[in-house]
Every structure is written in C-alpha cells, then in structure tokens.
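anyone seen this seq b4? input:
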Amino acid sequence: MISLAGRDILHGWGKFVFTGIGLGLLIGVTLVMAGVYRGMVDDGKALLDNSGADLWVVQRDTLGPYAESSSVNDDVYRSLLGMAGVARAANVTYLTMQVRKDGTDVRAMIVGIAPGEPAVTPGWPPYLLAGRQITRGHYEAVADIATGFRIGDRLSIRRNEYTVVGLTRRMVSSAGDPMVFIPLKDAQEAQFLKDNDAIWQSRRRTEANPGLNRPGVPGLLDAVLVSQSSNPVVNAVLVTLIPGQSADEVADGIRRWKRLTVYTRVQMEEILLTKLIATSARQIGMFLIILAVVSAAIVAFIIYTLTMDKIREIAVLKLIGTRNRTIAAMILQQAVALGLIGFVVGKIAATFAAPYFPKYVLLVPGDSIAGFLAVLAICVVASLASIRMALRVDPAEAIGG
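predicted toks r here
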C-alpha cells in the first residue's frame, strides 16, 4: 500500500508538493512563535545571570526593579555590607529610553553601575567582546552589540554625551531591549534629576512659600532647594553572598532589620516569568492554537480534495476486493507524507528566519520534537473525514456513468 499511496502522490506531485510547502511555512511560523516565547524566558534568565546578584533589595512592597519602579536611598548599601552573610552590595539603576546617535534613536535599557571592579562588583557586564570596561566616573559607556553601536561612537543620553568604550553580548532587559552601561552618577542624573526649567520653576514656587522664609529658621530655604536639585536615590541594591550562606536566611534578616523588600534568585525569576511575560505567553499560546487549527484545516482540505479526485479509482479498488483498511491506510499515508514535507520545510524556514527577527528567537530541540508529533497527530485527525468518505464509496460507481 506504500507503493499505491506513492503512485497516487506522484500522479499529482505538483499540487502535493506546493501544498506541503505552504503548510511548511505555516509550521515554520508556529515554530518561530514558540521560539519567541523561549527567547523571552531566556532573556529574563540572562538578565538575572548577568546582574551577578544573589539578592535584590528594593523599595518596600514593590516588585522592583524590573517589574515595577523602585526607589531606595543610595546609602543603604553601606548598612547592608555590615550584615552577616553579605559579601558585596552595589547600587544600580535601570532606565529604558531612546538613545540617540547621529540623529537616529535606539531603544535601550540604561544601566547605572556603581564604582568597583569588573566581574566582582554586582551589576557590571561580566565580559566584553571588544574594548574595555568603564574606568572613568563620567561620560563613558559599554553597549550590547544588539544596539548596533561601535567602539568610539558618541551617544546622547538626556543632556549628556557618552563615548562607547566597550561592547558586550546578550546583555538585555526582560523585554529584549539591549543594555547600555554608564556610571551610576550619570544614570541617577539621567533618571531622577529634573531639567533646568523644572528646577527653576520649583525654586520659584519654593521661594513664594511663606513658611520657608521664616526669620527664626535660617537655612531652611537653602536646604529645600538643595534637596530638590539632588537625588540620592537608586532603583535597587544588588547583593552577593558569602559562599555557603543561605539566600533565604540573609534575605529574612534584611527584611526584618532594614524594612525593605528583598528577593532571592528564585523569587525574582518567578516575578519575571509570572508577572512580566505572562500576558505575552498567553497571547503566544492563543496564536499557537489558532495556527494548529488552521494547519489541520489545510491538511483536511487538501486530503479531502485528493480523495474526491479519485472516487472512481477507490470504487474500482473496492470492486476488485481491496479491503477497507488498505484504502484507509493509503489516505492516511498521504496525509502523513504531507505533514512530513510540511514539517521539514517549516523547520528549515524557522531555522534560517530566526536570526532576522528583532526579538531573540530560541529554537530548542524539545519544541521541534513536540512540533513534529503535533504535526503527525494533526495529519491523522485531518485524514479521518476523507477516510470516512472513501469507505462509504459504492463499488458500483466504478461501472457507473
């Protein structure tokens, strides 16, 4: 019966092959959609890995610094260094914005890193592809290669310009935006400081407040003006632990004594997966279901059409005594062959197209295996209607008009 199915396929190979290619492109889109979800998960894990932190200390009762905004005084890290089990603590800020270069904008996450040593201080990029790490306190930047920047490029971030001195790879936010690292003081200014006009207007309102011009309180107005022009705030404090220390125990101690919210690596990963990308995951899941239904409809339609085209041949087979299961096997084999062609085309298309997508697409073997089994199952189900119709064919039609 393999020969019978093969001969029938060869008889109309053009329609069969082109249908397989069309189905393959649809399967390729399905594999890419699954790869987009895997890429989002991998981006989130890469964000946590590259931070170099064991604990994230953020504003109380927030999901910061990635899922929500968070503000912590920038002197908190000093008190954390004195706590048992803490090896290092470093301030960090995160700000997603458009970075300008030569009149063009690139969306990136600006990361403000505290002074320290590379590969030791949390928050620093763990490795570079080219160039060097930041060595000055101002106006230098290390960029992910996904930004398209090169060493020596001049970037505009808010009111200041920065020179790219190093390039790194796979340093991305949970949304897939490439990172640009700058000194912490510059990042605080970019994120928290008001522009000149806003500061001037704020000072006018403050000077007009009678309560701040009381003769018995000298220096009160000056103190308010200074507080409005300075921002000793960061988004989080990244903490690394002494080897062998329990992250949960140290986190409990910080929560108890510092009245701050602390997340371990496991908790932060759960936030990224269940809070940040949960909606996107459900949306991708809906697309996968729709694509599976469309694929099944295409296979069912083409197999039904092929079966309708050979109704008389099937009647002849039944007239000469061919068993029903033999006819059913022929139709099933054609459906499976169509699915195999589609899967091969789809896998090749997804593999070659993935690098060109703006978001990171991660194709894992497990998804390919699951996709292959799903395609076979869809083809089997889609062929049932054609098999049922073929089995109901009257042998008399072979000699009919």
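Residues 2-43+279-398 form one domain. Residues 13-51 form the longest helix (39 residues). kinda curious what u guys think
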